[in-house]
Amino acid sequence: MQVENDYDRDVYNGDLGVVQAIELDASEMVIDFDGRLVTYGFGELDEVVLAYATTIHKSQGSEYPAVVIPLTTQHYPMLQRNLLYIAVTRGRRLVVVVGQKKAMAIAVKGKQTGRRWSKLREWLTHDWQATAAALSVGCARGASA
Q1: Beta strand 64-71 pairing with 91-99
Q2: How far is residue 76's CA from residue 63's CA, in Å, rounded to a whole number?
Q3: Residue pLDDT, tens place only, 16-32
Q4: Taking 70 as the threshold, does the pLDDT of residue 54 lie above it?
């Protein structure tokens, strides 16, 4: 799995590929991303990781022939209806849910995700105020010139 965007190679975070060759003499690995062969030097292998399994978040927008979903109460914050929906709808032919009935009930009953605490509003407000101040200074200079 590609773990960061690489615009030069046209592969992006979350893209899945299959290792086709490891060229020890050339210190390269060749990965097939949906029919496109992409070559990585051994020094660039931090851009890819093995992906026998992936998270619900990384799987968004993708489909797989079979999906196995573990549901346990040990990961209580992840028991959300929207995440369960995403997980179930990733499977094309087979979806298997393994876990506790209680965990399934919690996930299905979940009304909405909890409020996310971020500084986005603060950053946007600060940036907007700084931009407005810069514009007003620029306008004042332009008006007097």
Answers
A1: parallel
A2: 25
A3: 899 999 999 999 999 99
A4: yes
| CA–CA separation, 41 and 92 (whole Å) | 34
**Three-state SS sequence of 48-106:** ECCCCCCCHHHHCCCCEEEEEEEECHHHHHHCCHHHHHHHHCCEEEEEEEEECHHHHHH
Q: Are 97 and 104 in contact (CB under 8 A)?
A: yes
Tell me the whole-structure pTM to 2 decimals.
Answer: 0.59
Walk me through the domains of the chain, giving residue ranges and CATH numbers: 1-52 (2.30.30.940), 54-113 (3.40.50.300)
d(CA 2, CA 84): 24
